[in-house]
Amino acid sequence: MQEMETTSMETRQLHSSQQEAMKKIAEFSGEANETDIDEWLFDLNNLLSLMKLKDETRILETMSKLAGPALRWYQDNLRLFTNWSDAEKALRDRFKEFTSDSQLIQEFFYIHQEDSQSVISFYENVIRKYRKFQQFITEQQVITVLQNGVKTSLKEHLIRNEKEIKKPEQWLQVAREEEYVKKRLQQKINVPHHEPKNPPFFEHTLPTATIQPTSTNVHSSNQQPLTSRHYYKKQHLQHSTSTRNRTYPTQNNYMTLNQNQKTYAKKETQQSTPSLIDTGSAITIIHQQLLNDIPHEKLIPKTINHISASCSTLDIVGEIPLEINVNGIKTTIIADVTTNLVTNLILGSDWIQSNNVYILTPEQ
After folding, report:
1. Is residue 264 domain-resident?
2. Which of 80, 191, 286, 306 is the most buried (most CB within 10 A)?
3. pLDDT computed for residue 190 by the predictor
4. In a domain, 247, yes or no
5. Could you tell me the CA-to-CA distances from 141 to 99, 101, 148 in Å, in that order?
6. pLDDT band at 309; cut points 50, 70, 90
7. Helix, strand, or coil here: 59?
8. DSSP track, 291-310
9. From the CB of residue 276, how many other CB atoms can be counted at a distance below 10 Å?
10. Beta strands in 138-288 (DSSP E)
């Protein structure tokens, strides 16, 4: 008896889930400027195949997703559909586009991302069009369409990485990460700076660095005119632990920050924490454990994954505002908090770009 009740509950739950899934399929009316019939049937067939429905049930379920002229035509011809293949072919023939395949393929190569369109929406639009002509178009041509059609603000980063992109899915990953960085930088510009309640943790770093502070960072009235950039000399890593702990490897484009923690009431001695400036890392990342040792503002929870340059996955649990104080020059950044970073802190390209930091090579 118990087994029969469980089976009955599962059946009801499955039916309810199927009904909810069917609601996600848009209605098709056959009017102009509507979803292409091939795309609509692709979505519908995917769902009906998963539901494992009989042909007669598929025919009736399809009628529930039609509207307007398409519904009237379908009802008039319902008796002609002896199986689902008949109904599908009749729908495709009745509402097919009159644009030639050659013209549609030509239009495919000129798809562009709209100003308000997200990367993933643009990508899905391209892939749906590609699906219709995939016997004529290669994946490399799809990547070319994506590269040419993406917003100008994302092109530079994608061009730099195009040699590593072999499949459209890889292009999407790189483009979404760059879109995320741009969004973070824009948020920093739009959010006014507030002094933290606690003293900054990262103080007196890089004693050999050449630093030109901006006028906004200096409060003394007898200072000479200052430049608008911060300059840092490249240093070789002096601690082997920092070298081994590097997460986003690049060649000779980083420097070590030997952080000295300020002494607080609960701390009897100062604590040195190694960290990295890494132009190969798109974002600034801090290990969650380090938050136990420093004063900080409230953690903003979020759950995402980042793919490092070594293809390992970083588990992000939130983000937090940080103030970085280098020889009296204060900078701020919103850092992602991770649970599995192999070093304490990486200052990434978002910090470098938003604070106008130049890292000088020995030749310079």
Report:
1. no
2. 286
3. 67
4. no
5. 21, 17, 11
6. low
7. helix
8. GGTS-----EEEEEEEE-TT
9. 24
10. 230-233, 254-260, 272-278, 285-287
Q: 362 or 78, which is more confident?
A: 78
Q: Residue 229's pLDDT is what?
A: 43
* Per-residue pLDDT at 216: 43
194-218: average pLDDT: 44
- The CATH number of the domain where 150 resides is what? 1.10.1200
Assess whether pLDDT exceeds 60 at residue 11: yes
Q: Computed from CA positions of residues 267, 268, 270, 271, in that sequence, does the dihedral angle turn out positive or negative?
A: negative
Instruction: Round to whole Å and give the CA distance between 202 and 254.
Output: 18
Burial, 4: exposed, middle or buried (Cβ in 10 Å; 0-12, 13-18, 19+)?
exposed
- The structure tokens listed for 248 are 């986003």
Q: Which residue has the tokens 């240093």?
A: 235
Distance between CA 147 and CA 163 in Å, rounded?
12
Structurally, the chain folds into a number of domains equal to 3
Provide the whole-model pTM.
Answer: 0.41
For residues 357 and 351, the answer to whether their CB atoms sit within 8 Å is: yes
Final residue belonging to a domain, choices 66, 95, 124: 95
Tokens of 326: 């280098």
Torsion of CA 196, 197, 202, 203, to 10 degrees: 100
List, in sequence order, every beta strand (DSSP E) within the chain: 230-233, 254-260, 272-278, 285-287, 300-307, 313-326, 329-338, 345-347, 357-360
Tokens of 335: 């850092």
Report the 10 Å Cβ neighbour count for 332: 19
- Ranges of H-type helices in 191-323: 240-244
d(CA 25, CA 143): 28
Task: Please report where in the chains the tokens 């029969």 appear, as a residue.
Answer: 4
pLDDT above 80 for 33? no
Domain extent, residue 28, equals 11-95
Among candidate residues 189, 224, 259, the one where a domain is terminated: 189
Where does the pLDDT of residue 337 fall: very low under 50, low under 70, confident under 90, or very high at 90 and above? very high
Over range 124-137, report the average pLDDT. 86
Residue 174 lies in a domain: yes
Residue 74's identity, in one-letter code, is: Y
> What residue has token string 């009159």?
98
For residues 319 and 192, is the Cβ–Cβ distance under 8 A?
Answer: no
- Say which residue the tokens 């940080």 belong to: 322
Any domain includes 160: yes
3-state secondary structure of 260: strand
